[in-house]
Amino acid sequence: MERHTKKLAQLRARTDRQLVELISARLDRGFAYARVLAARDSQAQGAAVREFEQRAENAWREAHHLLPALNGIAETDRAALLRRAGILREVLDQFAAESAPIKRAACF
Asked: How confident is the model at residue 100 (pLDDT cuts 50, 70, 90)?
């Protein structure tokens, strides 16, 4: 029985390491799309910009949904991933605010 418990613990540790790598890769992808959005030419509009925004958003969403599955990692590692996810969320929110149409009051 103890042998099986040890084997399960090893499998869980490997799964957690793989999850950390997957989450980190998703965040890296989100930041890469965000860098493209930040460097975009003011003339770049429309479908291309929306596509990059959507891809960056999807990368954040995937990472965000995987974070709760991490159980056996160091708290510092978890905090670092949460911090990166939070930064990416702030960047994406800023892009969304910048690209939102400006509402003007109607004057009659």
From this structure: low
Q: How far apart are CA 59 and CA 41, in angstroms?
A: 23
Q: What is the mean pLDDT of the segment spanning 35-60?
A: 81
| DSSP 8-state secondary structure symbol assigned to residue 70 | -
How do residues 56-91 score in pLDDT, each as one tens digit? 999 999 999 999 988 888 899 999 999 999 999 999
For 95, how many CA atoms within 13 A lie in the half-sphere containing its CB? 26
Cα–Cα distance list, 35 to 29, 69, 103 (Å): 10, 28, 27
Gap between the Cα atoms of 5 and 9, Å rounded = 6
The residues, any chain, with a CB within 8 Å of residue 24's CB and separated by 6 or more, are 81, 84
Q: Where are the domains of the chain?
A: 2-99
CA distance 62 to 42: 29
Query: Pick from 83, 80, 94, 97: which is nearest to 34 by CA?
Result: 94
Residue 43 tokens, joined: 């003339």
